[in-house]
Amino acid sequence: MEYLGENFLHGIECSMEKFTRTEKEIATYIIKKPTEISVLSSSQLAKKLHVSPATITRFCQKLSYSGFNEFKHELKRYVDLNMRPGLTVGIKQIDYFAQLYQNHLDIIENTFQNVAYPDIQEVVLLLNQAKKIHVYGIGNSGIAAQEFKSKFFRIGLNIETITDPHQAAMDASLSTKKSVVIGISLTGETKEIIRAVKIAKAQGSSIIVFTGEKNSELSKISDITLLAMNKSNRHMGQNISPSLPFFLLFDLIYTELITKDYKNRMHFREKTLKSLQDDE
Question: What are the CA-CA distances from residue 217 to residues 13, 26, 191, 208 (Å)?
Answer without folding.
Answer: 53, 55, 9, 13
